[in-house]
């Protein structure tokens, strides 16, 4: 192998490794309301931090493959590339369920982070200052037409076979994670990543604040599913506002608020699985940009 090819190969592998690192960093952040962390299972009795570590490790080869797929497609990447990714994503879902004995830890991340890692592979030759924006643009290019293809004819399907996201589209017109991805992940591009870039303090402080920022601004289909109503999104926005009004993770008042919020999530069985996925994406960009 020539030195040039070898270096390219290493860059591709690095993109895959950073994906698993982002999954590990997300699950380490605590105290996270409604989510599994090393201290708490939150409202997820079927999983703990070890389930997440096992799940993340099982996805290494998927993310390496995704980065390689992207690097082969380059900047013209489009829906064909997404079709190829979905095929390997479905296999990765099966590997994840085998590794976790049937627990859904990273289904959302297989989809969202898979797209971003593939787009990162496609921008391997782009200048590092321009890269993040290019990744979002390519993700958008790749997802062209997905809303139409995934949501057409849903009403003719057996209602029992529909996923939470599909049900929420039929019931509330909400496009969920597919809508976010099709728009090029605006919650990450315009809100979470700029927010993370200007945070200070420990990595734990910065990531906790970024999570609560995301949770206050996104429509988390996992939260809606658990609450049984989309009105929960407005409630979450208010919780986020109050947390930051107390100074966030770096203040005693902010930490006390978070502690109480964790209790509320536990008592009501609420989860922030979708927001966790967007945090994972934000961490991935943070790693690419050397923000930690
Ligand atoms: C497009 C797919 C993601 C499938 O979508 P689907 O319609 O099956 O599901 P959705 O409900 O739309 O969402 C799927 C997961 O995406 C995450 N998510 C939701 N909202 C957001 C958001 N605003 N931003 C980012 N991410 C979001 C979320 O994942 C997290 O929650 C998961 C736990 O969920 P679940 O098991 O349903 O919930 P529990 O509370 O545990 O269940 P109960 O105990 O209540 O029963 C966890 O994985 C988090 O990561 C949503 O769950 C994609 O999978 C797809 O295309 N599927 C088709 C097959 C395929 O092609 N797969 C390969 C993709 S490359
Ligand atoms: N830490 C976490 N807890 C529960 N669901 C998640 N989905 C992604 N990360 C998660």
TrEMBL record:
Any one Pfam family match given in the protein's UniProt record, by short name: CitG
Known catalytic reactions: 3'-dephospho-CoA + ATP = 2'-(5''-triphospho-alpha-D-ribosyl)-3'-dephospho-CoA + adenine
EC number per UniProt: 2.4.2.52
Alphabetized Gene3D superfamilies for the sequence: Triphosphoribosyl-dephospho-CoA protein
Matching InterPro entries: CitG (IPR002736), TriPribosyl-deP-CoA_syn_CitG (IPR017551)
Superkingdom field: Bacteria
Keyword annotations: ATP-binding, Nucleotide-binding, Transferase
Entry-linked PANTHER family: 2-(5''-TRIPHOSPHORIBOSYL)-3'-DEPHOSPHOCOENZYME-A SYNTHASE, TRIPHOSPHORIBOSYL-DEPHOSPHO-COA SYNTHASE
Similarity remark: Belongs to the CitG/MdcB family.
Name under which the protein is recorded: Probable 2-(5''-triphosphoribosyl)-3'-dephosphocoenzyme-A synthase
């Amino acid at each position: 192998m020539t030195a040039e090819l070898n270096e390219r190969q290493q860059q591709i592998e690095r993109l895959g490794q950073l994906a698993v690192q982002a999954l590990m960093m997300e699950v380490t952040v605590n105290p996270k309301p409604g989510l599994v962390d090393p201290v708490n299972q939150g409202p997820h009795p079927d999983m703990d931090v070890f389930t997440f570590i096992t799940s993340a490790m099982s996805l290494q080869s998927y993310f390496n493959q995704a980065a390689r797929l992207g690097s082969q497609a380059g900047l013209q990447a489009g829906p064909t590339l997404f079709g190829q990714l979905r095929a390997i994503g479905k296999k990765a879902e099966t590997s994840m369920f085998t590794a976790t004995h049937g627990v859904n830890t990273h289904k959302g991340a297989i989809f969202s982070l898979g797209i971003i890692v593939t787009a990162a592979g496609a921008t391997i030759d782009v200048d590092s200052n321009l890269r993040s924006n290019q990744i979002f643009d390519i993700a958008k290019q790749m997802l062209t037409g997905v809303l139409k293809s995934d949501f057409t004819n849903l009403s003719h399907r057996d209602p029992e076979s529909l996923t939470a996201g599909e049900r929420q589209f039929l019931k509330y017109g909400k496009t969920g994670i597919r809508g976010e991805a099709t728009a090029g992940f605006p919650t990450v591009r315009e809100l979470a990543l700029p927010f993370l870039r200007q945070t200070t303090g420990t990595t734990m402080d910065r990531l906790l604040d970024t999570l609560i920022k995301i949770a206050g601004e996104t429509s988390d289909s996992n939260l809606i599913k658990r609450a049984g109503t989309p009105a929960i999104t407005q409630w979450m926005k208010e919780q986020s506002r109050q947390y930051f009004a107390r100074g966030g993770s770096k203040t005693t008042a902010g930490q006390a608020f978070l502690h109480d919020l964790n209790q509320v999530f536990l008592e009501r069985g609420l989860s922030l699985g979708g927001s966790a996925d967007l945090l994972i994406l934000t961490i991935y960009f943070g790693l690419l940009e050397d923000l930690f």
